[in-house]
Amino acid sequence: MPLDPQRFLDDLHKLRSFGASGVGKGVVRQAYSDADIAARKWLAGRMQEAGLEPYFDPLGNLFGLTGENSLLVGSHSDSQPEGGWLDGALGVIAGLEIARAAREAGGPPVSCVSFQDEEGRFGVLTGSDVWTGKLAIEEADGFSDTQGNTLAGMRARMADLAGDFLPHGRFSGFLEMHIEQGPYLEETGLAIGVVTDIVGIRDMRITFEGRQNHAGTTPMHLRRDAFQALSAFNTMLNSRFENVVAPATVWTIGHVVLHPNASSVVPGRAEFSVQWRDADAGRLARMEEIIAETAQEIAAGHGVAVQLGPVMGIEPAAMDAGFQAELAEAAQALAPGKWQRMPSGALHDAANLATVMPAGMLFVPSIGGISHAFDEDTDEADLVLGLQVLDRAARALAG
Ligand code: HGY
Ligand code: MN
Ligand code: MN
After folding, report:
1. Which pLDDT score, from 0 to 100, does residue 1 have?
2. Alpha-helical regions (H) of the chain
3. Which of 7, 23, 226, 383 would be a feasible disulfide site paired with 270, CB 3.0-4.6 Å?
4. What is the pLDDT of residue 109?
5. How much is the average pLDDT of 56-80?
6. Above 70 in pLDDT, residue 355?
7. Coil, strand or helix: which one is 244?
8. Residue 33 has pLDDT above 80, yes or no
9. Nearest protein Cα to ligand 1, atom 6
């Protein structure tokens, strides 16, 4: 039996119903939420119906297994707090359809996977960080989300489903299909990107601790205002980075909590995230030094204390040359002149998988370059073309 594009699209829309936000096609399906666990149970059922063996590991990574030595194809089905319907889900359902069609055709052996917490509610790419051995589960268990829930507490919600970790040697390699999440393919009129490299990332939490006080009676010169420290930190950091960054370097303060967050109170505490990404590990390290120095200088200048949290990260990762060549062959056959090799500025589980087996990735366009937002979308014709290209490469690599 060949691929069934309608069955693929129907399953993709069904997955969207778990945690549907009610805004466009958006989803709210953070790792270990009720919607995430329900979606994983549904996925396990679809795997079973396809003759694949559903298997949960201790993190809640869900595999659909076949054979003793298969190609693994998949992505993640958890979302950002406000997520699109395709980020991760596309690669998971593409993996399911390719594994299912291969099984119906009598081979080659293809297994599928949905990794857990790719979106970093607790870590960075938590599920694949732990499975690939980069992060010990005992350490990960102590990680907390921005609400103070621990990973240990949340993964206990799926403990009744969990077996042991699977050996990596069971799989010959990993393929992941994903939306680009940026504007490049759409702007250049291309349908397929064959990923060459995935950028590296660093992520940390910083706290400025000042003095909470009355916003009417506290003279400006006596204040130790944690928000003013944060604001000055951001300005100085942008200026210091100018001499260090490359055109593709990015950095973001995306999560901020002010305490007590009231208009008549001088803020006593500002807790915030700083995240930075680049293809060069040396530049990532230099940026980390600048962040630490700047935070300390600003704290001293504003009379506040500073606490620098641990730095989490993923190294830049090259995709396997043989897998790239197979994806390029498939793209040239099915989308001649409509594809290109390109790096990934977003993180993906393939970056972790590349440390334990050959890994490759394929992108399809994102409308308007929008992602990590409810209105993320891609034309269904592009989704199906991407599925067909990935399937052709998967059959060659698994066969
Ligand atoms: O943030 C990322 O790049 C990924 O979507 N987790
Ligand atoms: Mn993703
Ligand atoms: Mn994402």
Report:
1. 59
2. 5-16, 34-49, 89-104, 126-131, 137-141, 151-155, 184-188, 226-241, 281-302, 321-334, 349-353, 380-398
3. 226
4. 97
5. 97
6. yes
7. coil
8. yes
9. 119
